[in-house]
Amino acid sequence: MGSPRRLLLVSNSTLHGGGYLGHCQQHIQSFLGQKVKRVLFIPYALHDRDAYARTAREKFESLGYGLDSIHESCDPVEAVRKSEAIFIGGGNTFRLLKALYDNSLIHEIRKRVLEDGIPYMGSSAGTNVATTSINTTNDMPIVYPPSLQALGLVPFNINPHYLDPDVKSTHMGGLREGAMLLVEGDKATLQGVTGARLFLREYEKKPHHSTFGNVILSWQVTRERNSYFLLAFLAIQSVTVIEYRNYA
């Protein structure tokens, strides 16, 4: 049986010309559905947590969900244990990860998401910490967490706010602003309007572009009759052919 994980990993909180989470609000409502009534917000990536919580609360209430900010709780661990859904917002990824470690939340969030199956949403830094590590962040190390290892809710790295010009990048994946990944169990679906870029570690230097609707996770390349098949897999299980390209 596959993992019950349900994640919505958004590249950015604000898209040019729109308001806070405006470009993904329909995806948020579809993702959280009607069963979730309240969302636990983790604002640790910004210094002014009160102002950040007000912004997030206003948005989520407009979508029909209550919002509790973890920094207002006297027991952050208990707040995670009681949460119906978790949203970690953007800001500085180093500041965010350090606070997660300082408040002993790494294990608790992993348990709630991977074992209990509550929805997890991240934007920007919140997407970065959902991956295996924050090695692909664009942020400056203004503080130092005890480790760069992150929540590990998915078995790959993401570079939020990805920009295309660096053709020599070795990032495992880049989400352009306006793009997001919907992760359901062992499947991840690319959503949004701007797409993403996937980087293969060993086979080919030229990265492959992924467009709206493609399923992407960690990838493997095999060859058959002078053509290459891209395979997605998670924990070496449930291998799925997701895209075919002929490079002959």
Question: Any chance you could write out the topology, listing elements then pairs?
Answer:
Elements lengths: L5 E5 L14 H8 L5 E5 L6 H14 L3 E4 L6 H7 L3 E3 L4 H10 L3 H10 L4 E4 L1 H4 L44 E3 L3 E6 L2 E6 L3 E3 L9 E3 L7 E7 L2 E8 L2 E9 L3
Parallel strand pairs: 1-5, 2-3, 2-4, 4-5
Antiparallel strand pairs: 1-7, 6-9, 7-8, 9-10, 11-12, 12-13
State the main characteristics.
single chain; 248 residues; alpha/beta; 7-stranded mixed sheet; 6 helices; 13 strands
Q: Would you give an account of this structure?
A:
The chain has 248 residues and is an alpha/beta fold. 21% of the residues lie in helices and 27% in strands. The protein contains 6 helices and 13 strands. The strands form 3 sheets. It has a 7-stranded mixed beta sheet with strand order 3-2-4-5-1-7-8, with helices on both faces. Strands 6-9-10 form a 3-stranded antiparallel beta sheet, with no helix packed on it. The model is unreliable at 169-176 and 199-248 (pLDDT under 50).
The gross shape turns out to be globular
> How would you classify the quaternary structure?
single chain
- The span between the termini is 37 Å
Q: Helicity range of the residues?
A: 10-25%
The class by helix and strand makeup works out as alpha/beta
Instruction: Report the C-alpha radius of gyration, rounded.
Output: 18 Å
Q: Which strand order spans the largest sheet, edge to edge or round the barrel?
A: 3-2-4-5-1-7-8
Give, in order, the helices and strands: EHEHEHEHHEHEEEEEEEE
Relative strand content:
25-35%
How many helices? The count is 6
- Secondary structure tally: strands: 13
What about the largest sheet?
A: 7 strands, mixed
Mean pLDDT: 75
Q: Uncertain runs with pLDDT below 50, 5 residues or more?
A: 169-176, 199-248
